[in-house]
Amino acid sequence: MLLDTASLYYRAYFGVPESVKAPDGTPVNAVRGLLDFIGRLVQDHRPDDLVACMDADWRPHWRVELIPSYKAHRVAQESASGPDLEETPDTLAPQVPIIEAALDAFGIARVGVAGYEADDVIGTLTTRADGPVDIVTGDRDLYQLVDDSRYRRVLYPLKGVGTLQVTDEAWLLEKYGVDGPGYADLALLRGDPSDGLPGVPGIGEKTAAKLLHAYGDLAGIIAAIDDPKSALTPTQRKRLDESRPYLAVAPKVVQVASDVQLPPFDPALPAAPARPDLVAALAQRWGLGGAVERLSSALRP
Length: 301
Prior knowledge:
With 301 residues, the chain is α/β, with parallel strands linked by helices. The protein is built from 13 helices and 8 strands. 45% of the residues lie in helices and 10% in strands.
């Protein structure tokens, strides 16, 4: 089980009241919510391995070089020497180090790689995995990793983490008319304002799906631009032709990396907190007793 950690703690932050605070008054709603998310996931799914995948760089420079608008609207402050500072709610940012400390104290593997997003860590681990993989995320971008033949699916939280949309190929085909790899092509054609991806003007989700159904994939659509016998409308042909520079770089931006060099780590789901002393100290310092006990209980075989 691979966790898109930032996606989940953002959901926890907005799903758990900010009135949930530490003894000193510091909001810990995201921390408590995420620990409860993980406890429920472990309780319901009992994965052999569990990895909390992290955004070491939420807006990698190599993606921005290809599409400068990539996540540009979410930049709070640019940095020449490291990752740009992302706009984050004032009361969420201080909770992230607490989340990281709690994951480490429990012994839950936490993996991030400089220059890459959590999506890329997830893509790499999914590619390497020998057995089934469940990806838990509130980000539809990762639908591209769905693959029934290799038992890869996405668990998408609909309400908290108790109600999860199980995203497999059948669901994707019914909802979007594409399979996993086809979802990446659909996303780049349609565009995604939340990620600053412009898409092809005039090509919405339904048109993108129809084009992919007709021509197979993005390469097939591009080939159809130059084929006078293709069934593209004059307007579609013109817009796609004018978008060639974008279509040439968008796949590398949209597709998650699958070959990231990962640090050594132990993915095994712990049967008990690795550092019970630290877990207890964090619980007392931040008022996390209930969430800590629930997660500890869920971990027990």
